[in-house]
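PROTEIN ENTRY
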Amino acid sequence: MRLIAVEGLRVRVAEADLLDGTPVLDLKPYVPAADAFPDARAGWVERQAAERWTVAESAPFREQAAAILAWRGPDLAATARLQLSLDPFDGTRKRVARTPEGGTLSLRMFRVDFAADPAARTLTLLRVRSGYSAADLADPADPYGDKDLHRRFVSLRP
């Protein structure tokens, strides 16, 4: 994690996998000479490497994801690669549905369509779609604060 500030007995950090307000009881600096364990093993984590799928991006997907990111939207490419590289059809850990060409991963209100080759354990991210219907986007109610992004996205699509 990254140290942001020390204010009395309160330490502010960023880039840590913690819920806001989680108490941190013991902080130590990383000391390479003392904290590096080259022979350490991660057990089940290492076994997962053999189960990973290769995730590629089509040109249309890459362009769409880059535009959304440039508009300060979510990083759909990185998130889709992370979500789909291990057990891509496990609906207990992600919002994914099978389709005739592969599947669709739901990320927030975006939908990422992908093709799958189970024999080769490869996926290709094909395209991004908005999860909002035209009627949803016409409704001014915006509980997630993302409709302007989706309106911009769908306005550029043919």
User: Anything to note?
Assistant: The helical segments are 32-35, 44-48, 59-70, 76-84, 134-138, 147-156.
